[in-house]
Specification:
- The chain is α+β, with helices and mostly antiparallel strands.
- Helices cover 35% and strands 29% of the residues.
- The protein has one domain: FAD/NAD(P)-binding domain.
- The strands form four sheets. Strands 5, 6, 13, 14, 15, 16, 17, 18 and 21 form a nine-stranded mixed beta sheet that branches. Strands 8-2-1-12-20-19 form a six-stranded mixed beta sheet, with helices on one face. It has a three-stranded antiparallel beta sheet with strand order 3-7-4.
- The radius of gyration is 22 Å and the shape is globular.
- Belongs to the UbiH/COQ6 family.
- Pathway: Cofactor biosynthesis; ubiquinone biosynthesis.
């Protein structure tokens, strides 16, 4: 195959956080690669990281310590850290029960267990880095309408308004989110189960500062999390809230005033952060566990929420996606060094198998928390108390739990200088 036969090497369908991170990782790992990102929303050329002003209502993402290490490999952490709030402590408890587990970054000789970063800031940092990459071409606003395999790889139909063009590429990566229309069109089998709950997302303020502590609170009505939000230099009074609610409870919460929401939140969370004084703009979405057993086909791979969506209880969604992205890039880099076709099913299956165990264990961990803490049975409540106390007292169990929370529980995909071992393999 000659390069003259191709319009581009990789097409990324979706330019959100997952797609943009993949594009940047590919430029770092395989600088000669030509990448086309197809994004449904128009780019805003005037948006700049230099003009970014944090907003009280900004939605945010929890990044594990392992994700920080990956962004360091991408030479992006220096920028992200300017507006990243460290999580130095994690407090896990069962409302109304005595069991609790506490984690501290200092116990693991780290500055933080993780970080909270505004989604907009993360996106601006990614875009600022990608603007400097001439090998990346953006088609926006545009959508991938179809993908067809051929002897050269894949033909990708890209629609912008009424105009449709076809790009020939080695591989297309689907990164257009949990409701991926392209995934559905191509007939990927999706296993989906509803939790019968919604996640309400908002920023809140409390009378006591958060002390850089993330709270995971399990209640009889569902779990809730409060993540430290705001400055990275001093502990503030703002936190990012993830509140799990039934359909009926969500309707009631949305129907009342902000003051009444704060009062109901106080009843569910308690007084560990003092009084809730403010709640910002509320967003909500239904909670569903979605997995795709086979995330690759010849010339096609799924990443991010297009491959799996989790309950937000453990804050693992984007961190799992990031590890999957790096696993894919690792395989593509090795294939490029060997002179192999990047859309080869064998290469893409290596990515799938390397990421499968991490994905399955993370899904089981997140889903089991919901199942275990959702059982209103006296014996189970005692078992939960014993488990939380055991995690707090047993060094080995506590270390395992901390490493899982930090995103260090399994193999971390890496790329960089390709070793002679890889080249000779």
């Amino acid at each position: 195959m000659t390069r003259k036969q191709l319009d581009t090497d990789i097409v990324i369908a979706g330019g959100g956080l997952a797609g943009a991170t993949l594009a940047l990782a590919l430029t770092r790992a395989i600088p000669a690669l030509r990448i086309t990102v197809v994004e449904a929303f128009p780019l805003t050329p005037d948006a700049s990281a230099d003009t970014y002003q944090p907003s009280y209502d900004a939605r945010s993402t929890a990044l594990a310590w392992g994700s920080r290490l990956m962004f360091e490999e991408l030479d992006l952490w220096g920028a992200l850290a300017r507006h990243a709030t460290p999580i130095r402590h994690i407090h896990v408890s069962d409302r109304g029960r005595f069991g609790a587990t506490r984690l501290a970054a200092s116990d693991h000789d780290q500055d933080a267990l993780g970080y909270v970063v505004d989604n907009r800031w993360l996106g601006l940092c990614l875009m600022s880095a990608l603007v400097a990459c001439p090998q990346v071409t953006w088609r926006a606003p545009a959508q991938v309408r179809g993908v067809t395999n051929n002897v050269r790889g894949v033909a990708v139909q890209v629609a912008s308004g009424e105009h449709v063009t076809e790009l020939q590429a080695q591989c297309v990566v689907i990164a257009d989110g949990g409701r991926s229309g392209l995934r559905e069109q191509l007939g990927f089998r999706v296993d989906s189960s509803s939790y019968g709950q919604h996640a309400l997302i908002a920023n809140v303020s409390t009378s006591c500062d958060h002390g850089f502590t993330a709270y995971e609170r399990f209640t009889d009505a569902g779990p809730m999390a409060l993540l430290p939000h705001g400055s990275g230099d001093r502990a503030g009074h703002d936190s990012a809230l993830v509140w799990t609610l039934t359909d009926d409870a969500l309707e009631r919460i949305l129907a009342v005033t902000d003051e009444e929401r704060c009062q109901q939140l106080q009843q569910r969370f308690g007084w560990r952060l003092g009084r809730f004084t403010r709640i910002g703009q509320c967003h909500h979405y239904p909670l569903t566990l979605t997995t795709v057993n086979e995330v690759v086909r010849p010339g096609i791979a799924l990443i991010g929420n297009a491959a799996h969506t989790l309950h937000p209880v453990a804050g693992q969604g984007f961190n799992l996606a990031l590890r999957g992205i790096m696993a894919l890039v690792e395989q593509l880099q090795q294939a490029q060094v060997r002179g192999e076709h990047l859309g080869s099913l064998q290469i893409l299956r290596h990515y799938q198998e390397n990421h499968r165990r991490d994905c399955q264990s993370t899904v089981r961990f997140s889903d089991s928390l919901i199942q275990i803490f959702g059982l209103d049975i006296p014996a189970m409540k005692l078992a939960r108390d014993a488990g939380l106390v055991g995690l707090d007292l047993l060094p080995g169990a506590k270390r395992w739990f901390a490493r899982s929370a930090m995103g260090l529980g399994g193999r971390r995909p890496r790329f960089g200088a390709v070793t002679q071992e890889v080249m000779d393999d």
